[in-house]
Amino acid sequence: MFxxxxxxxxxxxxxxxxxxxxxxxxxxxxxxxxxxxxxxxDEAVDLARFIANIVPGAHIFxxxxxxxxxxxxxxxxxxxxxxxxxxxxxxxxxxxxxxxxFDMPVPPDELCQKxxxxxxxxxxxLMLTFLTVRYLDVYSFVEKCNDYMPGVPMxxxxxxxxxxxxxxxxxxxxxxxxxxxxxxxxxxxxxSGEKVESYSxxxxxxxxxxxxxxITDTFGTCILGIDGMDAADSFLLGIGDKIKEKPExxxxxxxxxxxxxxxxxxxxxxxxxxxxxxxxxxxxxxxAFYAAHPDIDKYIKRSMINANHNVVPGKKIRRGFVxxxxxxxxxxxxxxxxxxFEKAETIFGYSCMSRSMxxxxxxxxxxxxxENTNICGCITDGEITNVNGRNCFAxxxxxVAVIGEEMCTxxxxxxxxxxxxxxxxxxxxLLEYLCDIETQFSKTKLTVSAEALRTFVRDxxxxxxxxxxxxxxxGAALNMDIQTKDYDRVCMINVFETSSMETVFSKHLINIxxxxxxxNCIRFAKKKNYSIYSLGKxxxxxxxxxxxxxxxxxxxxxxxLQRQLFEVTEEYIAIVPMFCVLDDCxxxxxxxxxxxxxxxxxxxxxxxxxxxxxxxxxxxxxxxxRYHMVxxxxxxxxxxxxxxxxxxxxxxxxxxxxHYESLMRLEDEKGTVYYPGSFLPVARSYGLLYDSISSIxxxxxxxxxxxxxxxxxxxxxxxxxxKNSEIIDYIYEFLSTAKHPxxxxxxxxxxxxxxxxxELVKFVDRIHDYGAQIAIDDFGSGxxxxxxxxxxxxDYLKIDGSIVKKCCEDEKSANLIALISNxxxxxxxxxxxxxxxxxxxxxxxxxxxxxxxxxQGYLFSKPSPDI
Length: 867
Fold this sequence. Notes:
There is one protein chain. The chain is 36% helix and 27% strand. It has 867 residues and is of the alpha+beta class. The strands form six sheets. Strands 14, 15, 16, 17, 18, 19, 20 and 21 form an eight-stranded antiparallel sheet that branches. Strands 33-34-36-37-38-39-40-41 form an eight-stranded mixed β-barrel, surrounded by four helices. A hairpin with a 2-residue loop joins strand 24 and strand 25. It is globular, with a radius of gyration of 34 Å. The two termini are 65 Å apart.
């Protein structure tokens, strides 16, 4: 069994790819899956027919979707085609109607029998199954498949489209093959064979919580009663009235069926709607529901909760909620099974639309674990998955199946489990909800219903706000205390380079050292009435409100704790914890301020630091200006408004302009011209924006000077440019064909962080090989390194303008220019010196006295778009 995945670009490209595979059904069954988020119904069928013509005999299985999954990533507005060439395994595909000739839904038992007759075999090892949203008996159908086809795991879901919304379950989505399409059917594929083995399971992140209740009354997909009371009232009792303002909150608090407590059933809350509006009275499908409720007031406006499947009275349910650490643990458990599966030749993966609404980074993160595998699938509106050997219908789930005939392993990425910060960030919406509820509690007198709500919130908090060990609060609790209790004074405590301990000390000694470190911090915090939080194994935070303790007192206490931690006996490993005291903290500025402080502490080699968390924080006006500049840059890129200006560089010996420096300008839609100081810092902070304007600038300068014989030009290059293979390859390609490569000078900023001088020297040597020249820009600023400059072997050295401008009134600046000039005389390298920002005759006189070769500034030439 071999699997290849393709992103659909064109029929021609697809045909070429298939021809290279040399697929032949004589070598084994060929299974082709198509998941498309770009094709309309007839277009999808046309694509399936095209594939059937170029791969005769292939078994084709197609669904619409809102997004596709391929190679561990998900793509919007794409179509993926997955091809599996079987060896001995057999494939059967069938597209079966889910509605009869009277447009009535086929009963689940009858549909199961049809599926069994069409594709099931005694040695079927996996069933891929997709339905459309119109068939609302999907839950019962999947349940009954366990009886009709026992022991056969299923994976799949409900086809959807990009039109999916939160406000209602969308009546869109279709399935197809080369013979046609339908939005009222099921498409199934069985993979069978004696040598075939499969494993299927899922990750949800759902945690059942609270008391078990019973669904006592339903109307189709609508739950009317829970434990005899109005279902909508009971639903709000669990999560509060904010659901009316933010319906997406329902995804965070699904119900779970008691017989499958980790499988969420997401409900949609709707307000001020009647039964008759929700369920068409003229539809024969709804006749049985109306007949079962002869006394219902079908016209009264009411609140309702609805599932995406017909709900059966008598089902036992519990409340649940979805949170980050449960998502991680579920995925770890799922991954362990997938990783240990020995015949991993093909991976199927399906994730729910509501999952990305609960946690926007969740799907990206959990797919990244499989980024180097041949996983292929799509985003669905409900999943069919297998849990503990039983098939079930679920929502908000990541379902995975792995299958194969021969021994095979995939290249997984377990390192993703070490980088789950994005999930914690997503968790903030849930925390904000809990904060709002807590605020309501403090403002209102508790009623019986509010007390029930508080119990539910407290149960959620016990899971959300405590570390895995359960005896100390976590980072989520710190954020909540900052937000709701004004805990704006925080000390971050961390022990770094703990991995090096493992190479020297035993695991037992490391563990008891950590336990001693943790217990000392907890004991000290309790003694001082401070709150303590675990942000990582060795990373702790201690916090208090500023109105309770002064900054000086808080800092003294933290210094005392640090001294205590230093005082260890031979029984423990000596550790050096770093203490960073941050004042005026908010949820938004805490971690950026901490990371910034950490860099400073490491640079200065200090272990205790006190600073305000608001330092370096942008104010509202700065933020607005920043976004304005992003728009200016985007406009300039898309409307050809990246404009090269040129400033002449004056030869002090020949008394004429020697060459020109190209300077970037941007122009907005009003014709306003922007200088580099206003847009370059913003562009550099958004790396791709910088790459765009830099490559445009280089191309325009090259085009302007390509055929000029008697004029030279210099271009500014950053270290980022030199590391950008596309830009550097373009430069090399241009110089290799340029008529006069000696007319091009590349200015490298000396004050940038250069982390690989060997790479830089290699670039400089290559430029010289092509006959072009190198200049070192802004020399003298920052921490200049003469040894590095000597290695670079430049043709020009440009003295930083901040030094040149002050040389008349500042003796130190003048002496520095003299020093650079004398160093040139002593140097074995032959290069010329250029002084920037020469604005008047007084500056020029000093430069001439020091023998500076070239002068650049307004005294001789102002930047202009023309040479």
